[in-house]
Design brief:
The protein is an alpha+beta fold and about 350 residues long. The protein is about 40% helix and about 10% strand. A 5-stranded antiparallel sheet has the order 2-1-7-6-5. The structure holds glutamine (GLN).
Length: about 350
C-alpha cells in the first residue's frame, strides 16, 4: 500500500490557525484541486496505486505556526526529496571539500534517472539527481546497513520532530524493479566514485526514498532549513548551520531536475520534488512549504505542487530577486511580528 492512513482531511480537524493566510491557502487548494494534468508515477509499481485526487498544502513559519489546506496528514513516500537532506548529512559526515570530490553541484539538462556522469571527473552532476544521490548515500557513515539506516532515520526525525517509518512494500517494489539505479551505481563503482558496499548503499537509497512523511512533516522539514537548521517545533538542530547554505544552493539550482532553470526563473526559491508527489520549498527566514499531490509532469514534478509554490512566491513577492511591490504582504497576513 502506498498509504496507510485515512485521516480526516478537514482543515478544522487540525491545529490550523485561522488567518488571512489560511484562507489564501484554502483558495489555492480549491483552485488547483480540479487541475488533473499529469499522471501518477508507475515505474515503481507500488506508486501507481496512488489516488490522483490526494492533495495537501502546508506552510510552517520559523516561529512554528502551521497553515494548511487539504490532506496534510496523508502519508506518502518522500522519494527524491530525501536527497536534499541526505546531502546535508554527507556534508556533516565528510565536509564540503571531500563531498565535492564525489559529486558536483552543476545543474543538468538530463532526466533525474539518467545514466550519465561528468566525462572529465566521473562525478555525478549534482546530489539532487539519482546518480548524485546514490553517491551521497554511499557517503553516509555507519558500521553496516542497520546503523547507517538508523542514522538516516534519526536525522530525518530531527527534521520532522517525530519518528518515521519506511513503507516496506514501496521499498521492495523499487528494489526489485529499479535496475536503472543499479546500473548507475555500478557505473560509479567502475570509476571508483563509490565504495564496494554498493548493494548495501542501494538498499539504503531505496529505503531512504521509501520513508513516509505527510505534507505537514515536509513543511516542518523545509521550515527547519528556512530556520537555519533548527526545527521550529522542537527547537532541535537537524543540520549544522555551516551547511544550510550548501543544501539550499543545490536545491535552488538542481532541485526540480531538468526543470530547475525554469523553476528559478518562475518561482525563484529553493525546492525539491519527489515522484511520490511531494514538493518541499523554502523561503529562508520566512517559510517552509510542503505540498503533496501525486499527479506528475513528464519530468517527475508534482503539477499541482508546482502551481501552488509558484502562486505563493509570486503573490507574496518571495522570488529571490523580486524587488517589485508584491500583491500581498506576508507579514500582514501571518500576523505582525511573527516573521
Ligand atoms: N526512488 C526514486 C528513484 O530512484 C526517486 C526518484 C524521484 O523521486 N525523482 O527512481
Amino acid at each position: 500500500m502506498v498509504d496507510n492512513q485515512d485521516l480526516n482531511s478537514s482543515p478544522s480537524s487540525t491545529s490550523t490557525i485561522a488567518s488571512p493566510f489560511y484562507n489564501y491557502l484554502q483558495e489555492l487548494y480549491e483552485r488547483y484541486q480540479c487541475l488533473d494534468d499529469g499522471t501518477v508515477a508507475n515505474y515503481i509499481p507500488e506508486l501507481a496505486l496512488a489516488n490522483p485526487q490526494w492533495f495537501g498544502i502546508c506552510v510552517v513559519i520559523p516561529k512554528g505556526k502551521f497553515f494548511q489546506a487539504g490532506e496534510c496528514q496523508r502519508l506518502f513516500t518522500i522519494q527524491s526529496i530525501s536527497k536534499a537532506f541526505i546531502y546535508g548529512m554527507a556534508l556533516e559526515d565528510h565536509g564540503r571539500d571531500y563531498v565535492n570530490c564525489k559529486v558536483s553541484v552543476e545543474p543538468t539538462v538530463e532526466e533525474f534517472n539518467s545514466i550519465v556522469l561528468d566525462e572529465k571527473t566521473n562525478r555525478p552532476y549534482n546530489p539532487m539527481v539519482n546518480a548524485g544521490a546514490i553517491a551521497t548515500t554511499d557517503l553516509i557513515k555507519g558500521n553496516g546497513a542497520t546503523e547507517r539506516l538508523k542514522r538516516i532515520l534519526h536525522v530525518f526525525r530531527l527534521y520532522t520532530g517525530r519518528d518515521l517509518d519506511i513503507n516496506v512494500p514501496v521499498f521492495l517494489s523499487e528494489r526489485s524493479t529499479n535496475n536503472r539505479n543499479r546500473a548507475i551505481a555500478y557505473l560509479m563503482l567502475n570509476f571508483g566514485m563509490v565504495t564496494e558496499r554498493i548493494e548495501e548503499t542501494l538498499d539504503l537509497y531505496f529505503q531512504q526514498c521509501s520513508i513516509m512523511i505527510n505534507a505537514r512533516d515536509l513543511a516542518v522539514m523545509t521550515a527547519t532549513l528556512a530556520n537555519g537548521g533548527i526545527n521550529p517545533i522542537t527547537g532541535e538542530r537537524a543540520l549544522d548551520e555551516r551547511y544550510v547554505q550548501d543544501v539550499l544552493s543545490v536545491m535552488l539550482t538542481c532541485g526540480m531536475y531538468n526543470y530547475s532553470g525554469e523553476w528559478v526563473y518562475r518561482v525563484g526559491i529553493p525546492a525539491k520534488s519527489g515522484v511520490g508527489g511531494g514538493i518541499g520549498a523554502i523561503v529562508p527566514g520566512k517559510l517552509g512549504i510542503g505540498t503533496f499531490s501525486p499527479l506528475l509532469d513528464t519530468r517527475g514534478n508534482s503539477v499541482r505542487g508546482m502551481k501552488v509554490c509558484e502562486d505563493i512566491a509570486q503573490d507574496f513577492g518571495l522570488h529571490l530577486f523580486n524587488v517589485a511591490q508584491p500583491k500581498y504582504n506576508l507579514q500582514d497576513w501571518i500576523e505582525p511580528n511573527e516573521l
